[in-house]
Amino acid sequence: MRKEDCFYLGKIVSKYSYKGEVLAKLDTDEPDAYENMESVFVLMKGNNLVPFFIDRCRLHKSDLLRLDFEEVKNEAAADRIMGHELYLPLTMLPKLDENQFYFHEIIDFDVTDASKGPIGKVTGVNDSTSQAILLVAQGDKEILIPITDAILTKVDRKNKTVHIDAPEGLIDLYLE
Questions:
Q1: DSSP summary character for residue 167
Q2: Distance, first Cα to last Cα, the chain
Q3: Exposed, middle or buried: residue 10 (CB in 10 Å: 0-12, 13-18, 19+)?
Q4: Quick one: DSSP state of residue 130?
Q5: Are the beta carbons of 84 and 71 closer than 8 angstroms?
Q6: Where would I find the Ribosome maturation factor RimM PRC barrel domain in this sequence (predicted)?
Q7: Tell me: the pLDDT tens digits for 68-118?
């Protein structure tokens, strides 16, 4: 499995027991959707995704997932995967409503503003801040657009276009 064919699920953050159980911090709004997994890919050294099969998996304190892997049955084995990232195939992403989207799927979409018209292409999404931000390239300039329901009005997957209604002056800040 290639990393490009997967999505980031979370990261192993601590050991839970001396029997090798670990806790993973999930990067999702719906952690309960991943409570009954049979396997997961662990990103190992050399950027290799290695399948790990799960004996038991359950939520722990709402946003942590307690994992009991078939291959990890003691503290030493748990130490070897500590801090490693977890991935699942893109095909396992839950389906979304029409105007909802996953950040990775809108990369390279055109962006059209209600008043300015076409403004550029999506190059990425910065979700490390309290407000997710759409990164839009127009030539050698980068435009930052907050992702809110009021600004992002429509995602047209068929035509690969994101429609926005940016506040007056926002786009001009980046183009002057």
A1: P
A2: 44
A3: buried
A4: S
A5: no
A6: 104-170
A7: 999 999 999 999 999 999 999 988 887 777 778 888 889 999 999 999 999
